[in-house]
Each structure stands twice: as C-alpha cells, then as structure tokens.
Amino acid sequence: MNQRLSRRTLLRGLGAALALPWLEAMHVSGARGATTTAAPLRLVFLAVPNGMHMASWTPDAEGADFALKPTLAPLARFQADMLVLSGLTLDGARPHGDGGGDHARSCAAFLTGAHPKKTHGADIQNGVSIDQRAAQAIGESTRFPSLELGVDRGAQSGNCDSGYSCAYSSNMSWRTPTTPVAKETDPTAVFDRLFGDASGSDPATAKSQRDWSRKSILDFVAEDARKLSRIVGAADRRKLDEYLYAVRDVERRLQNPEGLAPRDRPAVDLQRPAGVPRDFEQHVEILFDLLALALQTDSTRLATFMYANEGSNRNYPQIGVEDGHHDLSHHGGDAGKLAKIGQINQYHVRLLGHLLERLTGVEEQGKPLLHQCLVLYGSGIGDGNRHNHDDLPIVVFGQAGGAVRAGRHLRFPQDTPLTNLYLSMLRMLGVPADKFGDSSAALENLG
Questions:
Q1: H or E element that contains 373
Q2: Where are the beta strands (DSSP E) in 90-214?
Q3: Residue 87 carries which DSSP code?
Q4: Which of 119, 117, 103, 125 has its CA nearest to residue 170?
Q5: How far apart are CA 231 and CA 424, in angstroms?
Q6: Between vectors from CA 291 to CA 285 and to CA 293, what angle results, nearest 5°?
Q7: Number of domains comprising the chain
Q8: What pLDDT does 271 receive?
Q9: CATH number of the structural domain spanning residue 91
C-alpha cells in the first residue's frame, strides 16, 4: 500500500520532530496521474572573504565551450550545473566618499546591494538582503523561513574596519536595514534546531533526557518511522532508510567531533558536546551536511553561509599556507603571495564540492535536488589587492527547476548590478518584484 502523505509529515518522539524528504507518496496527481505540485525552488548564498585571484578564476571563453581555470577546476564534475557570471558589480560596496572600509562594505552590500552607513555605533543602517526579502514572501511555507550559517561567530558591535561596525563584516543576512540576522556556527545547535520538537511542552527537558539516555534521536522517532515504512512503497522505504542513515551519520559526528573511536573515549559521564570542531574542514563539512538535510526536508528554502567574516586573516596550514588570508590578499603582484591566494581560493571551492555532492545525491521528483536549487558562491570584492567591486567572482550552481540553462560562462557589460541577478532570482521564486537594491533590470540570457 502506498498511502498519500502530506509534505509536512513529521516523525515525532520525545522532544524530536524529523521532517521528511520528498517521497513518491507525496505526489498530488491530476486527472491523468500527472504530478501537479511542482518541487519548490531553493536559494543558497555562500560568501568567501578577501576577494579572489581573478586570473585563476575567470574562464577565457564564453558560452558553453569554456575551460575551467585552476580555482574552479575541483568542481569540473559539476560544470554542466555551473553558470559562471562575469562583469557583475556591487556599487554599494564602493566608498562613495566614505574612505576606507571596503571589507565591511562588501559584506554588508553583498546580498543587499545597499551602501551601508559608515558608523561603529548603534546607528547601523544597511538594506534588506535577498534571502530575507524572499523569506518575507515565502518563509511561511516552511518550518524555518531561512537558515543562517557560518564558521566565525563575529562581534555585533565595535569598530572592525576603518570606522565600520563589526555588524557589517560579520553578517550577510539583514532582516531590516537596522537588523542583521546573526549566523549560527555551532553544528549541534543547528541539529537541535532542525530536529528538536519546538511544539513540545518542555523541549529543554526532553533534550536533557535524550542526552542522559545516550540514545540517538532516531530511537525516539523509531515507532513513527516503522509505521511510515508499512504504508509507503519500496522506493520510498529506500529513500527513508537513506535519509535516516544521513541524519544518524551527522549525529555520530556531532557526538564524536574529534574523530575518536568509541573505545578511545574517556569512560566518564560525558554530555553531548557543544561548541564547534577545531578542524576548519570538519566544521564546514558538517554545516554543509546540515544545510543539505534542511533543504532536502523542505525545512527551509533559503540559506546563507559565510566561510569566514569579511577581512578574515585565518591561515590554512592544512594546505600548506601559514600566512594569514587577509595579509596575502594584499599581494602587490608578488607571485608567491598570489600562488598562496590561489591555494586558499581553490581550497574553499573544493569544500563547496561537498555540499554540491550532497545535493546531487538526493532525488526529488525524479531529478537531483540540485536541479531545484540555485547555489550562489562568490565575494563582494574582486581582487583583494585592488579592493575593487566590479567584475566580481560569481558562480551559480543548479537550474532552478529548468528556469536556468547552466553549463555556461556569461559575461555582462561593465557595471551591470549584481542585484540584477537577485531580481531575477526573486521572480523565479514567484515573488513579485520590480526592483531590488540598485537593480536596473533582471538579467537576460539566464534561461
């Protein structure tokens, strides 16, 4: 028996509520058996700091017949889902008489297109970001209107860049012009938010009981899962098993963040660990796993991710780069520094491949989940040495359910607003919009 299910079906247990991935039993069939409910579009925005080594980023050829430069080369397997967009500009990040502070301005303007007010006091003023503009329109369709993630917590006040508040360089998502949306950096907190049952009478107590019992969250929804398996078809049972395995895999890594085998762990009464993994790559990958689960279960359709706060001087000894990222970005044309910047850029891109793998490995209505997404990756600074905000490094993955023709490199006229792309995205979501930020028109030739 394959019983019809609601897209909002949850598996529930003690303080737990697992949203389900798309299953065939969620089909809504028309008169001739055709599915009449289209899969929803998801938007994801990922930002890296300090610009890019553009000579190693921008393809030489335009159109479909383009070769990847070294920075994007680790994502060659996703080239058919890739749209490299050159020539886009973030005018709001330019000084406009405000002097220094390009890093803070570029982060604040990246998703808003606004020119932030230069202040390090409480009177911050920016714009509403594309993800929050979309959340205002479609956020009620999901459990969480949006999801904001990142690696660095960052301060929400103080002077972080030439007189600009730390709120500007630490946040890319803005609910209102005066209200940034702080990102979550702790994977355990993200897990509990996604899979905790907020409708329970005392979720904190329920979580404490789960922790005390040392059981997986899946143990508490096992009965619901068994009932569901009995009423869906074989294909859905397989999808359900794969999904529960993925949830449990993330949970294991949260319980054992440093990779110790169970027998090596201290024989003491340990609480479920809070905080973040010390290893940068593990931190990014587990947040990407959680992000993929959130999109897979339609818990949210809008997400942002910051690899680091803008202006970050993190070093990357794991790839042989001991120098700080921001210091290297002021390369002055030095070949050695440019080579190291290229290594960092390529490393960040390689980590993005983990998220794209997850999104291509999940099926929704007969297609990879990535097909129903637009995943934007880039920076509000072009070359870190010049601090320019034109011809930005922007690449988009996915096809928006067929609205975007990927596998191409498109070059737009000089000073084409990046917000023209965001206006196009809003319209693809079905959000009525004549303008966004400093947009002049929707981008042409995306489809």
A1: strand 373-378
A2: 147-150, 159-161, 164-165, 174-176, 179-180
A3: E
A4: 103
A5: 41
A6: 105
A7: 2
A8: 38
A9: 3.40.720.10
Q: What is the pLDDT of residue 9?
A: 86
In tens, the pLDDT along 97-125 reads: 999 999 999 999 999 999 999 999 999 99
Whole-angstrom Cα distance, residue 87 to residue 439? 14
Q: Which pLDDT value is given to residue 216?
A: 84
Give the mean pLDDT of 278-287: 96
Q: How far apart are CA 214 and CA 225, in angstroms?
A: 20
* Amino acid letter, residue 5: L
Rounded to two decimals, the pTM is: 0.91
Q: What is the mean pLDDT of the chain?
A: 90
Residue numbers of the domain that contains 210: 1-36+197-275
Are 411 and 86 contacting, i.e. CB atoms less than 8 angstroms apart?
yes
Spatial separation of the C-alpha atoms in residues 255 and 125, rounded to whole Å: 40
In 3D, which of 396, 188, 178 has the Cα closest to residue 290? 188
Specify if 127 maps to a domain. Answer: yes
Per-residue model confidence as pLDDT tens digits over 206-236: 555 555 445 788 888 999 999 999 989 898 9
Query: Are 324 and 217 members of one domain?
Result: no
CB 106 within 8 A of CB 164: no
b vs e for 385-395, b when ≥16 Cβ sit within 10 Å of the residue's Cβ? bebbbbbbbbb
Give residue 337's pLDDT.
Answer: 98
294 shares its domain with 351:
yes
179 lies in the same domain as 284: yes
